[in-house]
Amino acid sequence: MTLSVLLLLSGAILLGAYFIYGKYVFRKFKISNKNLPPSHALKDGVDYVPSRPIVVLGHHFASIAGAGPIVGPIIAITFGWVPAVIWILVGGIFFGAVHDLGSLVASMRNEGKSIGTIIQNNIGQKGKQLFMLFSFSTLILVIAVFADIIARTFINNSGVASASILFIGLAIIFGFINKAVAQKKTLFVIASVIGVVLMYYFVYLGMQIPFQLDYQIWLYILLAYAFVASVTPVSFLLQPRDYLNSFLLYGLIILAVAGVIWANPEIKMDSQVHVSTENLGYLFPVLFVTIACGAISGFHSLVASGTTSKQINKESDAKVVGFGGMLIESFLAIISVGAVIVISREEYLANLTSLGPVTMFSNGLGAMMSSLGISEGLAVSFVALTVSAFALTTLDTCTRLARFTFQEYFEGMNIPVGKGLSNNRYLSTGIVVLLSILLIKSGGFTTLWPIFGSANQLLAALALLTVAVWLIRKKVNASFVLIPMFFMFSVTLTSLGIFAWKNFQENSYVLSILASVLFALSVVLIVLAKRSLEQEEKAPDKLTV
Protein backbone atom coordinates (compact mmCIF):
# COMPACT_ATOMS: atom_id res chain seq x y z
CA MET A 1 0.00 0.00 0.00
CA THR A 2 1.28 3.47 -0.84
CA LEU A 3 1.03 6.52 1.41
CA SER A 4 -0.88 8.49 -1.26
CA VAL A 5 -3.72 5.93 -1.11
CA LEU A 6 -3.91 6.26 2.69
CA LEU A 7 -4.03 10.08 2.53
CA LEU A 8 -6.61 10.26 -0.26
CA LEU A 9 -8.82 7.61 1.35
CA SER A 10 -8.64 9.33 4.75
CA GLY A 11 -9.41 12.71 3.18
CA ALA A 12 -12.44 11.26 1.38
CA ILE A 13 -13.74 9.69 4.62
CA LEU A 14 -13.38 12.95 6.57
CA LEU A 15 -14.96 15.04 3.80
CA GLY A 16 -17.86 12.61 3.49
CA ALA A 17 -18.33 12.66 7.27
CA TYR A 18 -18.70 16.46 7.23
CA PHE A 19 -21.62 16.31 4.81
CA ILE A 20 -23.25 13.07 6.00
CA TYR A 21 -22.75 12.66 9.76
CA GLY A 22 -22.24 16.40 10.13
CA LYS A 23 -25.70 17.07 8.72
CA TYR A 24 -27.19 14.79 11.39
CA VAL A 25 -25.26 16.51 14.18
CA PHE A 26 -26.13 20.01 12.92
CA ARG A 27 -29.81 19.06 13.01
CA LYS A 28 -29.53 17.66 16.56
CA PHE A 29 -28.06 20.96 17.79
CA LYS A 30 -30.83 22.89 15.97
CA ILE A 31 -28.38 25.39 14.48
CA SER A 32 -30.29 28.37 13.09
CA ASN A 33 -29.39 31.88 11.99
CA LYS A 34 -32.55 33.06 13.75
CA ASN A 35 -30.56 32.86 16.99
CA LEU A 36 -28.62 36.07 17.65
CA PRO A 37 -24.97 35.12 18.40
CA PRO A 38 -23.18 36.64 21.42
CA SER A 39 -20.75 38.50 19.14
CA HIS A 40 -23.64 40.80 18.18
CA ALA A 41 -25.72 40.70 21.36
CA LEU A 42 -22.73 41.53 23.60
CA LYS A 43 -20.44 43.26 21.11
CA ASP A 44 -17.72 45.17 23.00
CA GLY A 45 -14.85 45.45 20.49
CA VAL A 46 -12.49 43.58 22.85
CA ASP A 47 -13.66 39.98 23.26
CA TYR A 48 -17.05 39.95 21.53
CA VAL A 49 -16.23 40.79 17.91
CA PRO A 50 -18.38 39.43 15.00
CA SER A 51 -15.98 38.22 12.29
CA ARG A 52 -15.91 36.52 8.90
CA PRO A 53 -16.12 32.70 9.08
CA ILE A 54 -12.74 32.26 7.36
CA VAL A 55 -11.13 34.53 9.97
CA VAL A 56 -12.77 32.71 12.88
CA LEU A 57 -11.84 29.33 11.37
CA GLY A 58 -8.25 30.55 11.09
CA HIS A 59 -8.20 31.61 14.74
CA HIS A 60 -9.95 28.45 15.96
CA PHE A 61 -7.89 26.03 13.87
CA ALA A 62 -4.61 27.73 14.76
CA SER A 63 -5.52 27.65 18.45
CA ILE A 64 -6.61 24.01 18.69
CA ALA A 65 -3.86 22.60 16.45
CA GLY A 66 -0.55 23.54 18.06
CA ALA A 67 1.88 20.63 18.18
CA GLY A 68 -0.73 18.18 19.50
CA PRO A 69 -1.85 16.51 16.23
CA ILE A 70 1.83 15.98 15.38
CA VAL A 71 3.40 14.79 18.62
CA GLY A 72 0.58 12.53 19.87
CA PRO A 73 -0.01 10.45 16.72
CA ILE A 74 3.72 9.91 16.11
CA ILE A 75 4.28 8.63 19.66
CA ALA A 76 1.15 6.44 19.45
CA ILE A 77 2.52 4.62 16.38
CA THR A 78 4.47 2.62 18.98
CA PHE A 79 1.30 0.49 19.19
CA GLY A 80 1.16 0.23 15.38
CA TRP A 81 0.08 2.67 12.68
CA VAL A 82 -3.20 0.86 11.93
CA PRO A 83 -4.84 1.44 15.36
CA ALA A 84 -3.52 5.02 15.30
CA VAL A 85 -5.19 5.75 11.94
CA ILE A 86 -8.44 4.05 12.97
CA TRP A 87 -8.67 6.05 16.21
CA ILE A 88 -7.89 9.33 14.43
CA LEU A 89 -10.69 8.79 11.89
CA VAL A 90 -13.29 7.32 14.27
CA GLY A 91 -12.35 9.64 17.12
CA GLY A 92 -12.20 12.75 14.96
CA ILE A 93 -15.61 12.17 13.36
CA PHE A 94 -17.73 10.68 16.15
CA PHE A 95 -15.92 12.08 19.21
CA GLY A 96 -13.87 15.20 18.52
CA ALA A 97 -16.11 16.95 15.98
CA VAL A 98 -19.19 16.38 18.17
CA HIS A 99 -17.26 17.55 21.25
CA ASP A 100 -15.99 20.73 19.56
CA LEU A 101 -19.26 21.73 17.88
CA GLY A 102 -21.25 20.91 21.02
CA SER A 103 -19.00 23.06 23.20
CA LEU A 104 -19.22 25.91 20.68
CA VAL A 105 -23.00 25.87 20.24
CA ALA A 106 -23.70 25.41 23.97
CA SER A 107 -21.46 28.42 24.70
CA MET A 108 -23.17 30.56 22.04
CA ARG A 109 -26.56 29.76 23.59
CA ASN A 110 -25.17 30.88 26.98
CA GLU A 111 -23.84 34.36 26.08
CA GLY A 112 -20.49 33.04 24.87
CA LYS A 113 -19.59 31.86 28.38
CA SER A 114 -17.26 28.97 29.14
CA ILE A 115 -18.15 25.35 29.84
CA GLY A 116 -17.93 26.21 33.55
CA THR A 117 -20.85 28.63 33.32
CA ILE A 118 -22.85 26.12 31.29
CA ILE A 119 -22.27 23.63 34.11
CA GLN A 120 -23.56 26.21 36.59
CA ASN A 121 -26.73 26.71 34.55
CA ASN A 122 -27.38 23.00 34.08
CA ILE A 123 -25.71 21.17 36.96
CA GLY A 124 -25.19 23.74 39.73
CA GLN A 125 -22.83 26.22 41.36
CA LYS A 126 -20.65 23.54 43.00
CA GLY A 127 -20.13 21.86 39.65
CA LYS A 128 -19.08 25.17 38.11
CA GLN A 129 -16.58 25.94 40.85
CA LEU A 130 -14.96 22.49 40.61
CA PHE A 131 -14.77 22.62 36.82
CA MET A 132 -13.45 26.19 36.71
CA LEU A 133 -10.68 25.35 39.16
CA PHE A 134 -9.77 22.30 37.10
CA SER A 135 -9.89 24.24 33.80
CA PHE A 136 -7.82 27.07 35.20
CA SER A 137 -5.20 24.66 36.54
CA THR A 138 -5.05 22.88 33.16
CA LEU A 139 -4.63 26.17 31.28
CA ILE A 140 -1.83 27.32 33.58
CA LEU A 141 -0.21 23.94 32.93
CA VAL A 142 -0.52 24.45 29.15
CA ILE A 143 0.93 27.98 29.34
CA ALA A 144 3.91 26.76 31.37
CA VAL A 145 4.55 23.78 29.07
CA PHE A 146 4.37 25.74 25.82
CA ALA A 147 6.33 28.74 27.11
CA ASP A 148 9.11 26.33 28.05
CA ILE A 149 8.92 24.55 24.64
CA ILE A 150 8.95 27.79 22.63
CA ALA A 151 11.79 29.36 24.63
CA ARG A 152 13.95 26.28 24.07
CA THR A 153 13.01 26.21 20.38
CA PHE A 154 14.05 29.85 19.98
CA ILE A 155 17.42 29.06 21.59
CA ASN A 156 18.03 26.07 19.30
CA ASN A 157 16.80 27.83 16.14
CA SER A 158 17.22 31.60 16.28
CA GLY A 159 15.83 31.89 12.74
CA VAL A 160 12.47 30.63 13.98
CA ALA A 161 12.58 33.31 16.69
CA SER A 162 13.20 36.05 14.12
CA ALA A 163 10.40 34.82 11.85
CA SER A 164 8.00 34.66 14.80
CA ILE A 165 8.75 38.29 15.74
CA LEU A 166 8.18 39.36 12.14
CA PHE A 167 4.86 37.46 12.13
CA ILE A 168 3.67 39.38 15.20
CA GLY A 169 4.47 42.73 13.61
CA LEU A 170 2.71 41.70 10.40
CA ALA A 171 -0.35 40.55 12.37
CA ILE A 172 -0.72 43.92 14.12
CA ILE A 173 -0.59 45.78 10.79
CA PHE A 174 -3.03 43.32 9.21
CA GLY A 175 -5.39 43.76 12.20
CA PHE A 176 -5.65 47.51 11.59
CA ILE A 177 -6.15 47.01 7.84
CA ASN A 178 -8.75 44.30 8.36
CA LYS A 179 -10.72 46.57 10.68
CA ALA A 180 -10.67 49.34 8.07
CA VAL A 181 -11.89 47.09 5.23
CA ALA A 182 -14.21 44.89 7.32
CA GLN A 183 -17.24 45.59 5.12
CA LYS A 184 -15.37 45.47 1.80
CA LYS A 185 -14.88 41.89 0.68
CA THR A 186 -12.61 42.66 -2.29
CA LEU A 187 -10.22 44.77 -0.21
CA PHE A 188 -10.22 42.10 2.49
CA VAL A 189 -9.21 39.44 -0.04
CA ILE A 190 -6.44 41.69 -1.43
CA ALA A 191 -5.15 42.42 2.09
CA SER A 192 -5.23 38.69 2.91
CA VAL A 193 -3.24 37.75 -0.19
CA ILE A 194 -0.60 40.40 0.54
CA GLY A 195 -0.46 39.33 4.21
CA VAL A 196 -0.02 35.65 3.36
CA VAL A 197 2.68 36.38 0.76
CA LEU A 198 4.60 38.53 3.27
CA MET A 199 4.24 35.84 5.92
CA TYR A 200 5.80 33.21 3.66
CA TYR A 201 8.56 35.67 2.73
CA PHE A 202 9.22 36.22 6.44
CA VAL A 203 9.83 32.47 6.76
CA TYR A 204 12.84 32.94 4.48
CA LEU A 205 13.84 36.35 5.90
CA GLY A 206 13.78 35.08 9.48
CA MET A 207 16.33 32.42 8.60
CA GLN A 208 18.66 35.12 7.21
CA ILE A 209 18.55 37.36 10.32
CA PRO A 210 18.77 35.06 13.37
CA PHE A 211 17.96 36.69 16.70
CA GLN A 212 19.57 35.17 19.79
CA LEU A 213 18.77 35.57 23.50
CA ASP A 214 19.15 33.25 26.48
CA TYR A 215 16.39 31.02 27.88
CA GLN A 216 15.29 33.19 30.81
CA ILE A 217 14.98 36.34 28.70
CA TRP A 218 12.95 34.52 26.05
CA LEU A 219 10.71 33.13 28.74
CA TYR A 220 9.86 36.57 30.13
CA ILE A 221 9.44 38.07 26.65
CA LEU A 222 7.02 35.28 25.69
CA LEU A 223 4.93 35.73 28.82
CA ALA A 224 4.93 39.52 28.38
CA TYR A 225 3.68 38.98 24.82
CA ALA A 226 1.01 36.60 26.14
CA PHE A 227 -0.09 39.28 28.63
CA VAL A 228 -0.49 41.87 25.85
CA ALA A 229 -2.31 39.39 23.59
CA SER A 230 -4.75 38.62 26.43
CA VAL A 231 -5.78 42.16 27.38
CA THR A 232 -5.87 43.88 23.97
CA PRO A 233 -8.90 43.62 21.62
CA VAL A 234 -9.02 40.24 19.92
CA SER A 235 -9.00 41.96 16.51
CA PHE A 236 -5.71 43.78 17.33
CA LEU A 237 -3.32 40.83 17.63
CA LEU A 238 -4.79 37.43 18.51
CA GLN A 239 -7.29 37.07 15.69
CA PRO A 240 -5.18 38.43 12.78
CA ARG A 241 -2.08 36.46 13.88
CA ASP A 242 -4.05 33.22 14.12
CA TYR A 243 -5.76 33.92 10.79
CA LEU A 244 -2.49 34.51 8.94
CA ASN A 245 -0.74 31.64 10.73
CA SER A 246 -3.51 29.27 9.68
CA PHE A 247 -2.29 29.70 6.09
CA LEU A 248 1.06 28.28 7.18
CA LEU A 249 -0.72 25.08 8.18
CA TYR A 250 -2.98 25.09 5.12
CA GLY A 251 0.16 25.46 3.00
CA LEU A 252 1.84 22.67 4.94
CA ILE A 253 -1.11 20.34 4.31
CA ILE A 254 -1.31 21.19 0.60
CA LEU A 255 2.44 20.77 0.06
CA ALA A 256 2.43 17.55 2.09
CA VAL A 257 -0.38 16.00 0.03
CA ALA A 258 1.20 17.16 -3.25
CA GLY A 259 4.59 15.80 -2.18
CA VAL A 260 3.13 12.46 -1.14
CA ILE A 261 1.16 12.05 -4.38
CA TRP A 262 4.16 13.02 -6.50
CA ALA A 263 6.70 10.89 -4.62
CA ASN A 264 4.13 8.12 -3.93
CA PRO A 265 6.27 6.42 -1.24
CA GLU A 266 5.50 2.90 -0.03
CA ILE A 267 4.44 2.29 3.56
CA LYS A 268 7.45 0.37 4.87
CA MET A 269 6.30 -0.04 8.46
CA ASP A 270 4.52 -3.33 9.16
CA SER A 271 0.82 -3.31 10.05
CA GLN A 272 1.20 -5.37 13.23
CA VAL A 273 -0.80 -4.21 16.27
CA HIS A 274 1.10 -4.16 19.59
CA VAL A 275 -1.30 -4.53 22.52
CA SER A 276 1.39 -3.46 24.98
CA THR A 277 4.79 -1.79 24.80
CA GLU A 278 7.60 -1.50 27.32
CA ASN A 279 7.66 2.32 27.37
CA LEU A 280 3.98 3.27 27.09
CA GLY A 281 2.08 0.35 28.61
CA TYR A 282 -1.16 -1.10 27.24
CA LEU A 283 -2.94 0.01 24.08
CA PHE A 284 -6.04 0.65 26.19
CA PRO A 285 -6.14 3.26 27.59
CA VAL A 286 -2.79 4.75 26.55
CA LEU A 287 -3.49 5.06 22.80
CA PHE A 288 -6.61 7.15 23.45
CA VAL A 289 -4.79 9.48 25.82
CA THR A 290 -1.68 9.83 23.66
CA ILE A 291 -3.65 10.78 20.53
CA ALA A 292 -5.68 13.70 21.83
CA CYS A 293 -5.53 16.51 19.27
CA GLY A 294 -6.45 14.83 16.00
CA ALA A 295 -9.13 12.64 17.60
CA ILE A 296 -10.60 14.42 20.65
CA SER A 297 -9.03 16.95 23.01
CA GLY A 298 -10.56 18.66 26.03
CA PHE A 299 -8.52 21.78 25.34
CA HIS A 300 -10.68 22.34 22.24
CA SER A 301 -13.75 22.87 24.44
CA LEU A 302 -11.97 25.72 26.24
CA VAL A 303 -11.10 27.39 22.92
CA ALA A 304 -14.57 26.82 21.43
CA SER A 305 -16.38 28.17 24.50
CA GLY A 306 -13.72 30.76 25.32
CA THR A 307 -12.65 32.87 22.35
CA THR A 308 -14.32 31.29 19.30
CA SER A 309 -17.93 31.53 20.50
CA LYS A 310 -17.50 35.29 20.97
CA GLN A 311 -16.48 35.82 17.31
CA ILE A 312 -19.06 33.78 15.34
CA ASN A 313 -20.94 36.19 13.07
CA LYS A 314 -23.98 33.95 12.49
CA GLU A 315 -24.83 30.61 14.04
CA SER A 316 -24.48 28.58 10.83
CA ASP A 317 -20.77 29.54 10.76
CA ALA A 318 -20.34 27.18 13.73
CA LYS A 319 -20.63 24.21 11.33
CA VAL A 320 -17.41 24.82 9.43
CA VAL A 321 -15.57 26.30 12.42
CA GLY A 322 -16.43 23.68 15.05
CA PHE A 323 -17.12 20.49 13.12
CA GLY A 324 -15.02 21.29 10.05
CA GLY A 325 -12.05 22.63 12.01
CA MET A 326 -11.81 19.36 13.95
CA LEU A 327 -11.86 17.25 10.78
CA ILE A 328 -9.08 19.35 9.24
CA GLU A 329 -7.02 18.69 12.35
CA SER A 330 -7.74 14.95 12.02
CA PHE A 331 -6.36 15.07 8.48
CA LEU A 332 -3.23 16.79 9.80
CA ALA A 333 -2.87 13.92 12.30
CA ILE A 334 -3.09 11.42 9.42
CA ILE A 335 -0.32 13.36 7.64
CA SER A 336 1.76 13.12 10.85
CA VAL A 337 1.37 9.35 10.83
CA GLY A 338 2.27 9.27 7.14
CA ALA A 339 5.46 11.24 7.73
CA VAL A 340 7.00 8.36 9.70
CA ILE A 341 5.44 5.11 8.45
CA VAL A 342 7.54 5.30 5.29
CA ILE A 343 10.40 3.90 7.40
CA SER A 344 10.68 0.52 9.12
CA ARG A 345 9.50 0.00 12.69
CA GLU A 346 13.07 -0.54 13.90
CA GLU A 347 14.20 2.76 12.38
CA TYR A 348 11.10 4.50 13.77
CA LEU A 349 11.78 3.36 17.34
CA ALA A 350 15.42 4.42 17.11
CA ASN A 351 14.53 7.87 15.73
CA LEU A 352 11.76 8.41 18.28
CA THR A 353 14.35 8.16 21.04
CA SER A 354 17.16 10.08 19.34
CA LEU A 355 15.30 12.77 17.37
CA GLY A 356 11.86 13.16 18.92
CA PRO A 357 8.42 13.46 17.22
CA VAL A 358 8.70 17.04 15.88
CA THR A 359 12.08 16.46 14.21
CA MET A 360 10.85 13.15 12.76
CA PHE A 361 7.79 14.93 11.39
CA SER A 362 9.88 17.77 9.92
CA ASN A 363 12.45 15.44 8.33
CA GLY A 364 9.87 13.02 6.94
CA LEU A 365 7.56 15.65 5.50
CA GLY A 366 10.44 17.81 4.28
CA ALA A 367 11.86 14.88 2.29
CA MET A 368 8.48 14.31 0.60
CA MET A 369 8.08 18.01 -0.21
CA SER A 370 11.52 18.03 -1.81
CA SER A 371 10.10 15.78 -4.55
CA LEU A 372 8.27 18.91 -5.77
CA GLY A 373 11.61 20.60 -6.49
CA ILE A 374 11.84 22.47 -3.17
CA SER A 375 15.19 22.42 -1.38
CA GLU A 376 14.97 19.72 1.30
CA GLY A 377 16.70 21.96 3.84
CA LEU A 378 14.20 24.78 3.22
CA ALA A 379 11.28 22.33 3.33
CA VAL A 380 12.41 20.88 6.67
CA SER A 381 12.90 24.38 8.14
CA PHE A 382 9.44 25.44 6.90
CA VAL A 383 7.79 22.46 8.60
CA ALA A 384 9.67 23.09 11.86
CA LEU A 385 8.76 26.80 11.77
CA THR A 386 5.09 25.98 11.20
CA VAL A 387 5.02 23.74 14.27
CA SER A 388 6.71 26.45 16.38
CA ALA A 389 4.31 29.12 15.10
CA PHE A 390 1.35 27.11 16.26
CA ALA A 391 2.89 26.44 19.64
CA LEU A 392 3.09 30.23 20.06
CA THR A 393 -0.56 30.51 19.02
CA THR A 394 -1.51 28.03 21.73
CA LEU A 395 0.39 30.10 24.29
CA ASP A 396 -1.40 33.41 23.64
CA THR A 397 -4.84 31.80 23.28
CA CYS A 398 -4.40 29.90 26.55
CA THR A 399 -3.49 33.08 28.41
CA ARG A 400 -6.72 34.77 27.28
CA LEU A 401 -8.72 31.63 28.10
CA ALA A 402 -7.18 31.44 31.57
CA ARG A 403 -8.15 35.09 32.08
CA PHE A 404 -11.74 34.33 31.02
CA THR A 405 -11.89 31.34 33.37
CA PHE A 406 -10.44 33.31 36.28
CA GLN A 407 -12.90 36.17 35.79
CA GLU A 408 -15.92 33.88 35.39
CA TYR A 409 -15.03 32.04 38.60
CA PHE A 410 -15.42 35.26 40.61
CA GLU A 411 -18.52 36.52 38.77
CA GLY A 412 -21.50 36.96 41.07
CA MET A 413 -19.47 36.97 44.29
CA ASN A 414 -20.74 39.72 46.56
CA ILE A 415 -17.33 40.63 47.91
CA PRO A 416 -15.08 43.53 46.81
CA VAL A 417 -12.20 41.22 45.87
CA GLY A 418 -14.45 39.04 43.73
CA LYS A 419 -15.90 42.01 41.87
CA GLY A 420 -12.45 43.47 41.28
CA LEU A 421 -11.03 40.22 39.90
CA SER A 422 -14.02 39.54 37.65
CA ASN A 423 -14.00 43.04 36.10
CA ASN A 424 -10.29 43.85 35.82
CA ARG A 425 -8.74 41.97 32.87
CA TYR A 426 -5.28 43.44 33.56
CA LEU A 427 -5.18 42.18 37.15
CA SER A 428 -6.60 38.78 36.18
CA THR A 429 -4.07 38.33 33.36
CA GLY A 430 -1.24 39.41 35.65
CA ILE A 431 -2.17 36.66 38.12
CA VAL A 432 -2.30 34.13 35.27
CA VAL A 433 1.19 35.07 34.08
CA LEU A 434 2.62 35.07 37.61
CA LEU A 435 1.27 31.59 38.35
CA SER A 436 2.64 30.34 35.03
CA ILE A 437 6.11 31.60 35.93
CA LEU A 438 5.96 29.84 39.30
CA LEU A 439 4.91 26.58 37.63
CA ILE A 440 7.71 26.81 35.05
CA LYS A 441 10.20 27.23 37.89
CA SER A 442 8.93 24.00 39.47
CA GLY A 443 9.55 21.85 36.37
CA GLY A 444 9.84 21.82 32.59
CA PHE A 445 8.22 19.96 29.75
CA THR A 446 9.19 16.42 30.76
CA THR A 447 7.81 16.90 34.29
CA LEU A 448 4.53 18.60 33.37
CA TRP A 449 3.51 16.89 30.10
CA PRO A 450 2.43 13.45 31.45
CA ILE A 451 -0.10 14.88 33.90
CA PHE A 452 -1.29 17.34 31.25
CA GLY A 453 -2.18 14.48 28.88
CA SER A 454 -4.47 12.84 31.43
CA ALA A 455 -5.99 16.15 32.51
CA ASN A 456 -6.68 17.12 28.91
CA GLN A 457 -8.66 13.96 28.14
CA LEU A 458 -10.56 14.21 31.41
CA LEU A 459 -11.51 17.71 30.34
CA ALA A 460 -12.94 16.26 27.10
CA ALA A 461 -15.06 13.77 29.05
CA LEU A 462 -16.34 16.54 31.34
CA ALA A 463 -17.16 18.79 28.37
CA LEU A 464 -19.14 15.95 26.75
CA LEU A 465 -20.93 15.40 30.08
CA THR A 466 -21.86 19.09 30.16
CA VAL A 467 -23.13 19.13 26.57
CA ALA A 468 -25.11 15.93 27.19
CA VAL A 469 -26.86 17.34 30.27
CA TRP A 470 -27.57 20.59 28.41
CA LEU A 471 -29.19 18.66 25.54
CA ILE A 472 -31.17 16.37 27.85
CA ARG A 473 -32.59 19.39 29.68
CA LYS A 474 -33.63 20.73 26.27
CA LYS A 475 -35.48 17.41 25.67
CA VAL A 476 -33.06 16.37 22.89
CA ASN A 477 -31.94 12.74 22.47
CA ALA A 478 -28.25 13.03 23.46
CA SER A 479 -27.09 9.47 22.66
CA PHE A 480 -24.67 10.78 20.01
CA VAL A 481 -22.92 12.67 22.84
CA LEU A 482 -23.44 10.16 25.65
CA ILE A 483 -21.70 7.27 23.86
CA PRO A 484 -18.44 9.21 23.32
CA MET A 485 -18.76 10.57 26.87
CA PHE A 486 -18.95 7.12 28.51
CA PHE A 487 -16.01 5.89 26.44
CA MET A 488 -13.85 8.89 27.34
CA PHE A 489 -14.64 8.53 31.03
CA SER A 490 -13.64 4.85 30.89
CA VAL A 491 -10.39 5.82 29.15
CA THR A 492 -9.61 8.70 31.50
CA LEU A 493 -10.46 7.03 34.79
CA THR A 494 -8.49 3.91 33.84
CA SER A 495 -5.52 6.03 32.75
CA LEU A 496 -5.56 8.17 35.89
CA GLY A 497 -5.83 5.10 38.11
CA ILE A 498 -2.80 3.48 36.45
CA PHE A 499 -0.89 6.78 36.47
CA ALA A 500 -1.57 7.38 40.19
CA TRP A 501 -0.54 3.86 41.20
CA LYS A 502 2.59 3.86 39.02
CA ASN A 503 3.83 7.17 40.41
CA PHE A 504 3.00 6.09 43.96
CA GLN A 505 5.19 3.01 43.50
CA GLU A 506 7.98 5.22 42.11
CA ASN A 507 7.66 7.56 45.12
CA SER A 508 6.44 10.44 42.88
CA TYR A 509 3.81 11.37 45.44
CA VAL A 510 2.95 14.81 44.02
CA LEU A 511 1.99 13.40 40.62
CA SER A 512 0.21 10.50 42.28
CA ILE A 513 -1.87 12.87 44.40
CA LEU A 514 -2.66 15.10 41.41
CA ALA A 515 -3.92 12.11 39.42
CA SER A 516 -6.02 10.97 42.39
CA VAL A 517 -7.55 14.43 42.78
CA LEU A 518 -8.46 14.55 39.07
CA PHE A 519 -10.03 11.10 39.39
CA ALA A 520 -12.11 12.22 42.37
CA LEU A 521 -13.12 15.46 40.64
CA SER A 522 -14.56 13.62 37.65
CA VAL A 523 -16.55 11.28 39.89
CA VAL A 524 -18.00 14.22 41.87
CA LEU A 525 -19.09 16.01 38.68
CA ILE A 526 -20.73 12.83 37.36
CA VAL A 527 -22.68 12.52 40.62
CA LEU A 528 -23.73 16.19 40.51
CA ALA A 529 -24.89 15.81 36.89
CA LYS A 530 -26.89 12.70 37.79
CA ARG A 531 -28.58 14.51 40.69
CA SER A 532 -29.43 17.46 38.46
CA LEU A 533 -31.18 15.23 35.93
CA GLU A 534 -32.99 13.31 38.69
CA GLN A 535 -34.29 16.58 40.14
CA GLU A 536 -35.54 17.63 36.71
CA GLU A 537 -37.44 14.36 36.32
CA LYS A 538 -39.13 14.94 39.67
CA ALA A 539 -40.03 18.60 39.02
CA PRO A 540 -39.71 19.35 35.29
CA ASP A 541 -42.10 22.29 35.33
CA LYS A 542 -39.93 24.21 37.77
CA LEU A 543 -36.85 24.17 35.57
CA THR A 544 -36.18 26.63 32.80
CA VAL A 545 -33.82 26.11 29.89
UniProtKB/TrEMBL annotation:
Keyword set, alphabetical order: Cell membrane, Membrane, Transmembrane, Transmembrane helix
Name of the protein this chain belongs to: Carbon starvation protein A
Taxonomic source organism: Echinicola jeungdonensis
Keyword Nucleotide-binding: no
Compartments where located: Cell membrane
Membrane topology, from the record: Multi-pass membrane protein
Spans through the membrane: 6-26, 61-79, 85-109, 130-151, 157-177, 186-205, 217-238, 243-262, 282-299, 320-344, 364-393, 426-445, 451-472, 479-501, 507-528
Keyword match Transmembrane: yes
Top-level taxon: Bacteria
Residues in CstA N-terminal domain copies: 5-350, 353-495
Recorded family membership: Belongs to the peptide transporter carbon starvation (CstA) (TC 2.A.114) family.
